[in-house]
Amino acid sequence: MTGPTATPAEATPSGRAVTVIFVGEDGAADDAIPSALERANDRLTVESVTDEAEVRERVRTGRADCLVSRPSAADPDHCSLLELVRTEDSQLPLFFVTDGRDEATASDLLEAGATGCVSESVALDGTRLATRIERAVERRMERRDLEASAIRFRAFTENASFVVLTADDDGVVQYANDAVETVLGYEPAEVVGERLTTLIPDRYQNRHREAIARYLETGERGIDWDWVELSARHAEGREVPIGVSFGEAVVDGDHLFTAVIRDITDRKRLEREREATLERIADAFVSVDADWEYTYVNEQAVELLDRPREELIGAKMRSVFPAVVDSEIERQLERAFADQTAVSFTEYAGPLEKWLEIRAYPSEDGLSIFFTDVSDRIRAEEKLEASVTALQALYDISTKPDASLEEKLPELLELGCEYLDLPYGFMTRINLDERTQTVVESRSDHPLLQQGESCPLSEAYCRKTIKTHELVTVANAPDEGWTGDPAYELFELGSYVGAKVTVDGTIWGTLCFASSDPREGDGFSEAERTLVKLMAKWVSYETERTQSRETLERQNDRLQEFTSVISHDLRNPLNVAQGSLELAREGDRSQLEACEEALDRMETLIEDLLTLAEQGATTADREPVSIRELATASWSMVDTDDAALDVEGEPWIEADPDRLRQLLENLFRNALDHGVPDGRSSAELTVTVGECADGFYVADSGRGIPAEEREDVFDVGYTTAEDGTGFGLGIVTRVADAHGWDLAVTESESGGARFELTGVDRPRDAR
Fold first, then answer.
1. In angstroms, rounded to a whole number, what is the distance separating the alpha carbons of residues 123 and 37?
2. Distance from C-alpha of 22 to C-alpha of 30, rounded to nearest angstrom
3. Which of 317, 358, 538, 588 has the fewest CB atoms inside 10 Å of its own CB, making it the most exposed?
């Protein structure tokens, strides 16, 4: 079923080596001109020959592409070499080197058939002569190739069953083969020399002339040159249905048009006979011949293929639908024709965007093919299968025993994007107090839908999602009135589906899928909407369960800490108090002071323990806070002796002021209790509070914390002081966690301790 392949004309061997014979006087060595030519053009190979017999042999056997010579002194007419060469090869280029002042000799040589004459100085320079030699040789090669092509063309066409006509750009026929008599009733001699319009019915002649003139002027083809069905005028005056293919060649600047004409009378008759029967067939039907050209298309096929009948008939299936090349459809039809066996199969036709049930029945001349559109059935099956697969995948993701919600979310978003055929999947955190939306997980290349990106809720699609009990779906944003909406102006999403994520009955965020392009078809199906709702419900449940588990874990951690304090830290002063009271009862009144100290110690432990428990709350209520004002107030609540406080700048942050005051007081106490070196005064200690990248710091000029102890200082109960509780920095850690801040300790510029808190939000309004 593969169509014939045209064999290109033999290319002119441009660029190959050129052999030049320099003919010198007998016994006279002359290398100057040959050397100059070879230097001027590396295509030229110049050989010096002085023997006339050898020159004749070289020309006769074709071992010379060009000759160069000086006129012989022994040849008064200067033409003996020309006669010798032209006897053997009438077209071989031959150049003479003459005295530049001897115009008579040059004129005689040119008149006798020399290709050209150049002066001695030009020849010795080499460049111009080499260029003329190269051009002359190329022209000779082109001429010989053209003659060979003409011979092959005539040999091919003389015995052909189809008509071959060649006409020039004036429409005059230059060649007609013998088949013109069989098909159109004219002898070739009657057509050659006549205008092509002789063979064209009168009603088409003006159109033909206009088409030729337009093509010669603009290069625009008015018809399909590969195949067109026309009517020709027979010598008897009747019209003959023909199929014509056209070709064009340019020879010496002139256009030659070649028409290959086939008589399609019998085919037209058969088509008319078949059409009445085939039009009654319910299925789409086409027939193709052995060249894979459509020979018939019924009305149902015209509708199915969505192409005009005139575009299909006579056209190759590959040219109309290039995607069929090397496809399963082509392979099945090739097999049917090659094996001469009927085939039946179902395949997706990409150019038509349809699933087709195809039945093909072969003959020696081609195939008869029936098509049934089964797209609705196949797509319904695919959607059902995709829904089942997606639900199974959702179940597999949600039931992974060892994976956290953070590990499952990327897989969930990937599943949703694939199932919905949308490129963007993301989960947001909604802050109703601040009226903001922040992306917490993303599977997207949209720059504004990346993890951590935030925007006002008024500019987000999700503002509508959180206001409804159902999904929010947008199939075509411009058509649905989103143009001009702040969300559309910012994100430019053409389609969107989003569902609420709730925790403990309140809005936590949204789960969304979207695309920059509008959604094709009928929007989101019920199955797609159901899957998104299931995903959002599962995320809500997992988020709530994760938060509950984290809360319980924190409560358990605090309970263990309380148990440790009660069982260990409180027991020691309690034992002291009990022992002292026993001794006091026995009459040793001095033990009452030790008892009082032990009770004070217990009171301190209990107060710190209660503070630690209070700071273990899950979240902090934030508001804009001035670090300078709060640090100054906190400093006044601590017994600072003669130490100094230095607050740099005017930093503002978002924080719970009560909890931040507790954090600062504990950091100040830590600096005063542990930062003053032994034997030195607190007056030498300076505590500095300042702003750093993404947060703030508290630093002192004291003794600092050794690097090996920095990871332990935040452990509850860890202390290096004999009377310390070990709860101070634990309280600082709890406050930082409640705000979502990161806490780290390092060395200050003066060698003391520096506590850095990062991940700190700043108020939106400048202060």
1. 8
2. 9
3. 588
Give the model's pLDDT for residue 4. 34
Q: Are 743 and 755 in contact (CB under 8 A)?
A: yes
* Spatial distance between the Cα atoms of 432 and 615, rounded to a whole number of angstroms: 24
Residue 706: enclosing H or E segment and its boundaries?
Answer: none
Cα 615 from Cα 743, distance rounded (Å) = 15
Between CA 503 and CA 514, with CA 509 as vertex, the angle to 5 degrees is: 140
Measured CA to CA, the distance from residue 258 to residue 297 in angstroms comes to 30
Amino acid letter, residue 312: L
Q: Select from 163, 173, 251, 239 the least CA-distant residue to 202.
A: 239
pLDDT at 218 over 60: yes
| Mean pLDDT on 406-414 | 91
CB-CB contact of 289 with 264 (8 Å): no
Residue recorded with tokens 């006509």: 165
Say which residues have a Cβ less than 8 Å from residue 659's Cβ, sequence separation at least 6.
Answer: 615, 620, 735, 738, 739
pLDDT digits (tens, 9 = 90+) for 299-319: 888 888 888 988 899 999 888
Q: Which among 362, 338, 292 has a CA at the least distance from the CA of 4?
A: 292
Q: Which amino acid is at 697?
A: Y
Rounded to 5 degrees, φ, ψ at 154 are -65, -40
Number of H helices, E strands in the chain: 24, 28
- H-helix or E-strand containing 699? strand 695-700
Amino acid at 702: G
Tell me the one-letter amino acid at 357. E
- Could you list the beta-strand ranges (E) of 315-353: 343-349
* Rounded alpha-carbon distances, angstroms, from residue 315 to 3, 163, 335, 431: 11, 20, 21, 64
Tell me the C-alpha distance between 273 and 277, whole Å.
8
How crowded is residue 263: how many other Cβ atoms within 10 Å of its Cβ?
A: 19
Q: What is the pLDDT of residues 675-727, one digit of tens each?
A: 777 667 778 899 999 999 889 999 998 888 888 887 767 765 555 544 444 56
What strands, in cross-sheet order, belong to the sheet with 94-98?
A: 44-49, 18-23, 66-69, 94-98, 116-119
> Given CA atoms 462, 448, 691, 724 in this order, what sign does their dihedral have?
positive
Q: What residues have CB less than 8 Å from 610, skipping those under 6 apart?
A: none
Burial status of residue 64 (CB atoms within 10 A of its CB: 0-12, 13-18, 19 or more)? buried
Q: Is the pTM of this model over 0.85?
A: no
Q: Is 364 helix (H, G, I), strand (E, B) or coil?
A: coil
73: exposed, middle or buried (C-beta count within 10 Å: 0-12, 13-18, 19+)?
exposed
At residue 31's C-alpha, the angle toward residues 26 and 32, to 5°, is 125
Average of per-residue pLDDT across 367-378:
88
Question: Rounded CA gap, 7 and 247, in Å?
Answer: 13
Distance CA(161)–CA(183), nearest Å, equals: 9
Residue 79 has pLDDT above 90, yes or no: no
In angstroms, rounded to a whole number, what is the distance separating the alpha carbons of residues 362 and 660?
87
Alpha-carbon distance 394 to 377, whole Å? 26
Torsional class of 62: left (φ above 0), alpha (ψ -120 to 50), beta (otherwise):
left
